[in-house]
């Protein structure tokens, strides 16, 4: 949490579920009217729930430029939660039922940890599809992140995800196509990934999706398609991640291995650690493999490797989200200009 800006941290801490979260902090009717209103539907498990709030707000804060933003928090109620997650949601999140009668300029919908091979059997499937339908009718653009991207293309176009032989875990390089959302980005960018499944590029293209970032090694990352007047923006990866997020996930997966919750020791995230950090972590792996005991997780050398981590994907992430916010703002402005004409036409 220390890696995130204090402004974004205070933003989440200081707000209540019944109040709009203003990233810029301005008040007043005129500013609220000009603000881009974003609903963040955060479905991450309890351990990552608050970090995800902060990561997205930190990224939006960096990307907004002079645009005032308001961010409201929601979550799919069927996502399994323990006592900690339930308290957080009850205090800071609006009920999903409030979304249906609300006005937002955009949504961001996160994934969650998969529990069923068939996503249609997940307990939140029906509510998720209602969110997608609502977004298609009521927003100019909506972001679907990671598992939400997989669920979105399955629901909208019947495109199934495919299990990978190993977890796609680390920071991967992608080539960028020309598009309004990629304007100003380098031709090659790096984006973090942490997933066991993928949707394949050829299937996306066959169903009319435009793939904006792709790699021969790791497939499609960012892809878009319009439904009604809503541009759905899909990320298989996580541009919002902080510099230490993959380290935390790696530690979590090691802990699961030590506890016997997974059969194999997790693969080190690709192109993330420098040579010294990799050597330190390799020595820790040798120790765990020689004597698999739950107390060893206390010796995980997090502090020894954390300081060397670089946020190599920060600049392209800010660029992509800046372009997205400008797209949403332009559609909001166009709608405002057309509104008086529409009212005159009804007289």
Question: Can you give a write-up of this model?
Answer:
41% of the residues lie in helices and 20% in strands. With 347 residues, it is an alpha/beta fold. The chain folds into two domains: 6-242 and 310-346, 3-Layer(aba) Sandwich (Rossmann fold); 245-306, no CATH class. The strands form two sheets. An eight-stranded mixed sheet has the order 1-3-2-4-5-12-11-8. The longest helix has 33 residues, at 314-346. The protein is globular and about 65 Å long.
| CA(first)-CA(last) distance | 54 Å
- From the 3D coordinates, which CATH architecture of the largest domain would you assign? 3-Layer(aba) Sandwich
User: In angstroms, what is the radius of gyration?
Assistant: 21 Å
Helix % is: 40-55%
Task: Provide a compact summary of the structure.
With 347 residues, this protein is α/β, with parallel strands linked by helices. It contains eleven helices and twelve strands.
Which helices and strands occur, and which strands form pairs?
Blueprint lengths: L5 H9 L6 E2 L6 H6 L1 E6 L4 H18 L5 E6 L8 H10 L13 E4 L15 H14 L2 E5 L1 H11 L4 E15 L11 E11 L2 H6 L3 E2 L1 E3 L3 E2 L1 E6 L2 E6 L9 H14 L16 H16 L11 H5 L7 H33 L1
């Amino acid at each position: 949490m220390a890696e995130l800006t204090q402004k974004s941290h205070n933003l989440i801490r200081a707000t209540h579920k019944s109040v709009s979260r203003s990233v810029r902090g301005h008040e007043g009717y005129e500013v609220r009217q000009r603000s881009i209103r974003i609903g963040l539907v955060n479905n991450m498990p309890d351990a990552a729930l608050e970090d995800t709030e902060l990561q997205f707000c930190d990224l939006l804060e960096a990307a907004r430029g002079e645009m005032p933003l308001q961010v409201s928090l929601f979550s799919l109620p069927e996502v399994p939660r323990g006592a900690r997650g339930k308290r957080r949601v009850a205090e800071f999140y609006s009920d999903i039922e409030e979304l249906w009668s609300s006005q937002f300029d955009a949504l961001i919908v996160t994934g969650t940890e998969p529990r069923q091979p068939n996503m249609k059997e997940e307990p939140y499937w029906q509510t998720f599809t209602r969110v997608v339908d609502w977004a298609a009718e009521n927003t100019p653009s909506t972001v679907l992140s990671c598992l939400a991207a997989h669920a979105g293309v399955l629901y909208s176009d019947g495109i199934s995800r495919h299990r990978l032989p190993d977890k796609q875990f680390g920071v991967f390089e992608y080539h960028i196509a020309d598009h309004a959302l990629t304007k100003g980005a380098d031709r090659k960018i790096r984006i973090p990934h942490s997933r066991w499944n993928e949707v394949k590029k050829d299937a996306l293209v066959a169903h009319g999706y435009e793939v904006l970032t792709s790699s021969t090694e790791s497939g499609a990352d960012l892809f878009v398609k319009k439904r009604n007047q809503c541009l759905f923006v899909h990320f298989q990866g996580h541009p919002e991640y902080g510099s230490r997020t993959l380290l935390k996930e790696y530690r979590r997966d090691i802990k699961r291995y030590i506890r016997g919750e997974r059969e194999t020791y997790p693969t080190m995230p690709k192109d993330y650690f420098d040579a010294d950090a990799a050597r330190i972590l390799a020595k820790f792996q040798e120790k765990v493999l020689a004597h698999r005991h739950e107390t060893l997780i206390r010796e995980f050398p997090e502090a020894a490797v954390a300081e060397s981590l670089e946020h190599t994907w920060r600049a392209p992430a800010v660029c992509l989200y800046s372009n997205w916010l400008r797209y949403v703002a332009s559609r909001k402005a166009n709608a405002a200009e057309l509104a008086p004409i529409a009212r005159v036409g009804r007289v």
